[in-house]
## 1
Amino acid sequence: MRSSTPGNDTSTTEITHISSYGIWLLADNEEFFMSYDDFPWFKDQPLRAILNVEQPSQGHFYWPEIDVDLSREIINNPDRFPLKAKTT
């Protein structure tokens, strides 16, 4: 007997938790924590803006309502990328 052809990849990119310390992003079965200290753009944003995350390419995340682009490398190593945009 032959197995059926595998379906589409069902891996999603989503925000799994928001707290007073930061947000958790789940992508490709890996979870990332982004503290507000390292990623201040998210702190005072409405819930819908934070939840609206896209992964236009592997390891690249974009929040269109906030206009924030982050790579997996930046999220995993924020200390290597000390320049931060000023929040208003």
## 2
Amino acid sequence: MKMTFFLTVSAAWLLATSSQPPVRPGQLYNMSFDHWSKDKKGYDVCYGSDATSEEKKIWGSANGTTAFYGAPTVMPEENFVAVPGPGKKALCLKSQLIKVLFIKKLAAGSIFNGYTGGIDLSRMTAHLFWGVPFTERPTTLKGYACYKPGPIDFADKGHKDLEGKPDTGSLAIVLADWDTPIEVCPPDLALDEENDPGIIGLGKIYFKKKMGAYEPFSIEIKYRNGRTPRYVAIVASSSALGDSFTGSTGSVLYLDELEFTY
């Protein structure tokens, strides 16, 4: 009886002193976007200061590339949140212009499940690896979004006809049984959503209108087969064509309180 009491009190003390609640079954760490800290270079990273080594690997972002050029595109938002309360924060994705000597390129604010590999400084891009371990089959991804698009003021050769038109934000979820996280490197190496044999389920939403406040959304995940996933990748961008360096330097996408439903 004494040992049972000691264990109970110890567990309660750990819960009371931890700043981060345990991850609920069937969810990913920090889907609320409440927990943030700075990495060794001073860039914002989407995990708390007391995150475990595994929790630090859940959310990767474009900041490793864009902040290097003085234009951070992923940051926490403390004042404009979907669900108010002590310690509540949201995710802010902001498209920005990057300048290096005589080269200018649009950098979309983007966040994803996975990590950034090598950075190609000459081309101002990076090798990204999408996917973190996950074996569940949720039916939807829901949350809150507020999109404030600007007119497209930068476009590659294939999207010049879009200049001056309103930008579009995006949020996608991919469930797959890849052997390893999949590598993407804009603009040349992209995920083939239609034909990739590893994809089990896919869902996507585009944000096209200007919003004055957070609006709830729900993305249906459409499954292609009955296989069990190995990885999940949630990928969001303040400019949907950011992988083609096309979008608006005035576009901002806020996301908050993501959750899988079953």
## 3
Amino acid sequence: MKIIIASDHAGYDLKEKIISHFKDNFEFENYGPFSADSVDYPDFAHPVAEDVSSGKHEYGILICGTGNGIGMTANKHAGIRAALCWKPEIAALARQHNNANILVLPARFITEEDAFDVVKTFFSTHFEGGRHQRRVEKIDIH
């Protein structure tokens, strides 16, 4: 599975650790940044969201300090269901019930071990469909 991943400066270290930890499980395309120098999160969230929204990539991971700014930015794009997750149970429900396609992590509020568990859960959980499909179809404004 190929996953696109990006962060801001606050999420840079966790992004790099995730890429390293899961290098044998996933193929990552790193959208940056490529250092911990201060950057603006929308500059990294928009390209990831655009490529998931367009279907170029199926899934993405975005990381910033709280996860809020980068997730809010991604969710402005049609077809994006970016889910802020800090526990595996939340990641599982985001996939099962919301068909989330971008995982958002709060780098300043999650341990490295928990982040790894969340990533593993998010990408091993499938959308349940059924009654949830109807709800997911009502998310985008047409």
